[in-house]
Design brief:
- The protein is α+β, with helices and mostly antiparallel strands.
- The protein folds into two domains: about 5-185, Sandwich (Jelly Rolls); about 190-305, Arc Repressor Mutant, subunit A (Orthogonal Bundle).
- It is about 55% helix and about 15% strand.
- The protein is built from twelve helices and eight strands.
- It has helices at about 5-15, 95-105, 110-115, 125-155, 160-180, 190-205, 215-220, 225-235, 240-260, 265-270, 275-285, 290-310; strands at about 20-25, 40-45, 50-55, 55-60, 65-70, 75-80, 85-90, 120.
- Helix 6 (about 190-205) runs parallel beside helix 9 and helix 7 (about 215-220) packs across helix 8 (about 225-235).
- Residues about 5-15 and about 305-310 have low confidence and may be disordered.
Amino acid sequence: MDQIKAALEQQKINEKWITAFYRVQGMDSYSFQFHSHHEYEVYFFCGGDCKYLIGNRIYELQPGDIILLDGTTLHKPNPKVESTYTRSMLHFSPTWLAEIASVLGISDLLDPFKKLNNVLLRTGYNESGQYIDGQIKKIAGLLAEIDEEIQRTGIKDNLVEVEVKLELVQLLLRIYKMSQQELAHVPSKKTEKEIHAEAIASWIKDHYAEKISLDRISAELNLSKYYTSHVFKDVTGFTVMEYVMGCRLNQVKFLLEMEPNLTLAEVSSATGFESVAHFSRYFKEKVGLTPSHYRKNKLKSSTSSAKEDS
């Protein structure tokens, strides 16, 4: 199992509210799938040659770039194989942070994640960029201490966890200040290929629940079928239909969690699948659970959380 996927699976087991990975190198399969998650993410690009697709937008990354992700928008890096792709990532629960931010009197602390629509901040490794890089390293180190203590004694060190929370608040305060500076936001300077790839992604996001073909996309965007197929693969790293299915899968998860009264046939139809059988087979292949089991687990988790809060 890949390093990051294993850590995220362990996060579910331990019910952690935060995970951090410092200066991860190379190509692990989990991170390079088109994916989404419920946690907010601070992504720090350290080096390599990489484009990053978020929804229908494509960013050409530079060392020191920070991406603030709301998690639920589909995203995927597309690094070149020959480059040494290096990045740091921090995932955290917005629910927990909202509570502590309110207590501290900084209820707008998470606004950069809520309101800036998956923004990229270009630091060029300036003082702020170096600070964020250092904070992720510090938090990752503290989390490793907690895990080691649990493995050694079976008991979590609550003092170290408090330190993690304090360091995270400091990191988010700096990000909040950075996000207020409009000059820190990356200007839009895109190649013709990137513009076309974004147009294709935008069209798919608007029509993924319909019957889609390469012929239809290319005709409606006034591009050749060959060009449509190759430019999208070249820029994003995956095929047009992989993106279509990623959009469908993301919406399926949303409906299974948020619309428990919908039948599986209704979910299948609403998200563009040809049949319930195809829908169920594809979902099980990608998620590892049947749609019914996925919904049951999510509803059980929501019920447990509600009981804890009451």
